[in-house]
Specification:
6-stranded antiparallel beta sheet; 29% strand; 9 strands; alpha+beta; 245 residues; 3-stranded antiparallel beta sheet; 4 helices; Immunoglobulin-like
Length: 245
């Protein structure tokens, strides 16, 4: 608002200065084209007054220009400070989310969150690649540290989706390079697995199904994730249709 007020005053002063200069030019022309008379002396006085007024208005105009420059600079400083504050707040929120995620991870390992879970998928993420049909997957597997035993097994990855207006499920042999073995795991507390999934053309994925088959366990542990949720690393993918053995 202050900037607009200064600009308005600046515009008014500019218009008034132009008007005064125009009057001076007109009076000067009148004096030059007529013989000297008593009226001319009065006009001379008026010209002197108008010239003085024009100088005063010019000085006022310069002052307003300087003030407007200062106000614009102050506005730029405030905008930059506001941007820096927003960036710092975003960084703090990101760090807080990271710390909460780590705390949740270690609570799960220690079994202090109330649930005594065994083998489980702690996090699943998908990352697009340069090819629209190829996606990088990353899985974090955990088990409660109170079990304190090495666990081994394999991971079955299935992708549910739509092809030719029909629902289908793609198994690992259709999602990976020919002859590529299914991911396997062997760990005591946690392990990260990664790899690539290649989808066929004209296939729309809707869900990723992860089944963990551990040695010595009769039933696999299964998690189902919506495909779009896995593509958003900022949000924890919801679990649906979970079952564990």
């Amino acid at each position: 608002m202050a900037g607009k007020t200064v600009f308005t005053k600046y515009l008014e002063a500019l218009i008034l200065t132009i008007a005064v200069v125009a009057v001076l030019l007109f009076v000067t022309w009148q004096l030059a084209s007529r013989p000297v008379t008593p009226e001319a002396e009065a006009l001379h006085k008026n010209v002197a007054f108008l010239a003085s007024e024009a100088d005063r208005l010019k000085n006022r105009l310069r002052d307003m220009q300087s003030r407007q420059t200062v106000l614009e600079h102050e506005a730029d400083v405030l905008r930059q400070a506001n941007r820096l504050l927003k960036e710092e707040e975003a960084a703090r929120q990101s760090e807080l989310i990271r710390l909460r995620s780590e705390l949740d991870f270690y609570r799960r390992l220690a079994g202090t969150g109330g649930a005594q879970q065994g083998l489980d998928v702690y996090r699943a993420e998908l990352t697009p690649t340069e090819s629209p049909l190829v996606f990088r997957f990353e899985l974090t597997l955990t088990q409660n540290i109170r079990r304190a035993a090495v666990i081994t097994g394999r991971v079955n990855l299935d992708v549910e989706g739509i092809s030719s207006d029909r629902p289908i499920t793609l198994r690992w042999d259709r999602l990976s390079a020919a002859g590529s073995p299914e991911p396997s795991f062997r760990f005591k507390y946690f392990q990260q697995l990664e790899g690539y999934l290649t989808l066929p053309a004209e296939f729309s994925p809707t869900r990723l199904v992860i089944s963990l088959e551990a040695s010595g366990r009769a039933e696999p542990m299964q998690r189902r994730y919506d495909w779009e949720d896995l593509l958003n690393p900022a949000a924890e993918a919801p679990r649906a249709g979970d079952s564990s053995g």
